[in-house]
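Allow me, if you will, to draw on your knowledge of protein folds for a short while. The matter concerns a single protein, recorded as an amino acid sequence and a row of C-alpha cells. Could you please explain, in whatever detail you think fit, how the C-alpha cells follow from the sequence? I remain grateful for any guidance, and I place the record below:

…
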Amino acid sequence: MSKFRLGDGLMDSDSQRTDLAVADQWQYWKRNFWLGVINGVLFKVGITFSHPSTVLAVFLTKLTGSEFYAGVLTAVAGLGWFLPPIFVAGLVESLQRKLSLYTHMAFGRALGWLWMIAVVVYVAPNFPIYAAILFLLGYAVYTVTGGIASLAFMDIFARTVPFRRRGAFWGLRMFWGSVLSIGVGVIVRQVLKGDWGLDFPNNYALLLSFAFVTYVLGWLSFFLIHEPPPVWTPPPRSYKEQLKTMLELWKQRADFRQLIKVRLLMDIGLIAAPFYSTYAVVKLGAKPSLLGSFIIAETIGSLLANVLWSILADRKSNLFVLKCSIALAAIPSGWVLILTLLHYAFGFQVLHLYPLTYFFLAFSGTGIAISFTNYVIELADEAHRPTYLALSNATESGMMLLPVLGGILLNYVSHSVLFSIAFLGVALAAIESRKLLPAFATFIRPPLKHESIPKA
C-alpha cells in the first residue's frame, strides 16, 4: 500500500494531517487512464480511415461487382472478434500479467493488416475475385488476433480504471477520436473522389496505409500501461474445465442470460449493417465519394453521443445508457425504410438525407459501446472476468453470419425486407431490455462446484 496526504497544507479538526492508504492497484490509474484514452482515440481514427461497413464494404463491392463479399466481411469481423476468446479465456485468466498477450496479438494484427495492403496493391488490379478472398483472409487474421487481445485489454482496463471513471474513459476515447475523425472523413472523401491523384484500387490502399499508421501508434501507447497484479489468479485449466466453468456460470446467472438474450435480439440488426452504404451506391445512385459524408455524419453522431452517454453512464448507470441506446438503435433501419418510401413512392431525391442514417447508427452504437461491456464487467467476479467476456462474445458469434445471410437474401428479396428484419429485431431487444436489473441488485455468485477458491 502507498500513502498520500489529504489536502495541501490543510489540517483536520485536531490539527493533524490525514494519511489515506491507497491500494497499489490504483497508484498509476491516471497515467493508465490517459494512455488508454490515447489508445482509443488513435484506434477510432484508424477505423474511420477503413470503416468495415462503409469504406471496406464498398471497396469489396466495387472490386467484385457483388454485395455478397461485403456481407462476408462483416461476418469475418464479428466471428474473428467474438469466437476465438472462448478457446483462450481460461489461459488468459491464469496469466499474472495480460499485457504481454496483448503485445503479441498486436504483432499478429499488424501482419494481417499489411497483408491486406499488399493484396490491394499487387493482386486486386488483375485478379479481383482472388484479391477479395485473400483480402478477407488477412482481415480474418487481424480480427482473430484482435478478439484474443480484447480479453487482455478488458481485464487490464477493469484493474486500472476506477469504477466511477469508466464512462468517462470510453467517452473521452470516442469523443476525441470523433473530433479527429471529422477531418479523416474529409480526407476519405477527397481520396475516393480522386483529388489525390490515385485511381481504384490504389486510393483504398492509401486509406488502409493511413489506418495502419494510427493503429501502430495506438498499440505503442497501450504498451506503456502500468499493469497491476490481479487480486487472485486461477490456476491454468484445460479447455474441458473451461467449458465446465462457462456452463456453471451460465446456469447460475439468470441476469447474465437475460443480457445475452437482449444482445442476440439486437444483433439481428446486423443482417442489414453492411448494406446501408451499398444500397445508397447500387440502388439510389450515390457516388462512392458520398462515403465521406457518411463518415462525417457518423463522426458527428458519435461526438454528440459521447458527451451525453459518458456523463449518464457515470452519473446514472451503464444499464440506463444501455436501455436508452438499444431503443434508439431501431432508428437507422426505420429511417432508411422511410427514405425508400419517399424515393420510390413519391419520387423524392433522398440522398442528401441519407447521411442521417449513419448519424443515428453512431449515436446509438456509441451508447451501446460505452455501456454494454461495462455492464458485463459489473456482473462478473474479478477472477472470472475473461470468462464472462468470452462467454458473452461466444454466444453472439453465430449472429455474425447474419450479414452473409443478408447478402444471400438480397438475391431473392429487396433491401427493404432486409431493413425491416433489422428493425424488428432491435425493437424486440428494446422491449426485452426493460427486464434487465442493476448489476448490484443481482445475487452474489456462489463458488463454482469444481473450483476451490483460496481463503483470504
Strands lie at 2-5, 19-22. The radius of gyration is 23 Å.
